[in-house]
Amino acid sequence: MVLPQALEDLIEEFKKLPGVGRKTAERYAMHIINKYTEEEVNQLTKSLSDAKAKLHHCTTCGNLTDEEICSICKDEKRDLSTILVVENTKDVFSIEKGNEYHGLYHVLNGVLSPMEGMGPDDINLESLWKRVVNDKIKEIIIATSSTPEGETTALYIKRVLQETDILVSRIGYGVPVGLNLEYADDLTLSKAIENRKKI
Amino acid sequence: MVLPQALEDLIEEFKKLPGVGRKTAERYAMHIINKYTEEEVNQLTKSLSDAKAKLHHCTTCGNLTDEEICSICKDEKRDLSTILVVENTKDVFSIEKGNEYHGLYHVLNGVLSPMEGMGPDDINLESLWKRVVNDKIKEIIIATSSTPEGETTALYIKRVLQETDILVSRIGYGVPVGLNLEYADDLTLSKAIENRKKI
Asked: Less Cβ crowding at N or C end of chain B, within 10 Å?
């Protein structure tokens, strides 16, 4: 059976989303065709176009925003002397949900990866050096992920900043709160023991 | 942290897809914003609008098509004396993938469900009775699902057709091919024993 072209096209489009295979794409496509009114489809397409047209990276920190400077960089109640460096905007969401950190962010929008040809000029580092020079930054907390690329990026930032008197730190690794030890992987466990604290 | 409105809107739109929660919706939205070019977004929105505008139900069988009569109903090489009744277009895809059935289909686009106020006039039955009268149908195979609603629908069709000399059958239920018995549920197992065959 050959599917109608318009349906096949829509399924192919949905398949491009991360983690979406043929079956899920078919399900999304059928849902749109069977359940959505024309107006709802227009609303979806408008949201897509709007998001692409309006959102861009904050010129200060690289976070996603629909203004020139993002709401976090503009918020003067935050601790302006601390910058937490993350790989992408999603990490900012995750940390903001915790509502515990009140400093600023710097979003790299990538990691150093010689294998994929990602050098220091390909990620948002230039503006980090500018902030270090121009703003009164006391501490930079590096929260890139604990992959080889994330660690390389952390080391690179540390090395560039070692001449300055800024405190450069790395977020702590250990067993997640609430996780039973038997479910923690070996690497996490050894990190947890290495990072032990006197009680 | 308040997300930019355009991002929040897009996340809300993705959350309307079946089985998509907040996290997955965020992931899809970030993927579109970070990875898609403007042209790719246009292609996606065009596919959505096209699918909604061009696809509708075949006037004969209720299957999804971009023409008046779907490709299966138009195919004269198929067995025109057998109709397989399914709940929705996805079931047609599933059966066609098997490439074993060569008759026609009838897509109900729903099931009888007194609880949800779905009566015989709310699903695509009227055109089934027309086909029964006008075409030379010898057998109707009912493949609605084995839920109470699917069974009710099957019984209703059987009852309407019992005055005619059309053979009305129901697809076989049993243990799926390749499935280890220990993974089959009780109901399927008892159906499998009930539907046993002499070998």
From this structure: C
Q: What is the pLDDT of residue B45?
A: 95
Hey, what amino acid is at B193?
I
Lookup: tokens for B17: 């897809």
pLDDT given for residue B72 in this prediction: 92
For residues B76 and B121, state if they share a domain.
yes
Q: How far is B1 from chain A (nearest CA, A)?
A: 6
Smallest Cβ distance to B54: which of A6, A29, A93? A6
Q: Residue A40 falls within a domain, yes or no?
A: yes
Residue B74 three-state SS = helix
Distances (CA, A) of A186 to A149, A174, A190, A191, A192: 20, 11, 6, 9, 10
Q: Are residue A138 and residue A42 in the same domain, yes or no?
A: no
Asked, for residue B59, whether it belongs to a domain, the answer is no
Same domain, B41 and B80: no
Helix (H), strand (E) at residue A189: helix A186-194
Least confident interval from A16-25, A71-80, B91-100, B188-197 = B188-197
Is A16 a member of any domain?
yes
Whole-model pTM above 0.80? Answer: no
Contacts of B36 in chain A (CB under 8 A): 52
Which three-class secondary structure state does DSSP give residue B105? strand
Reported ipTM: 0.76
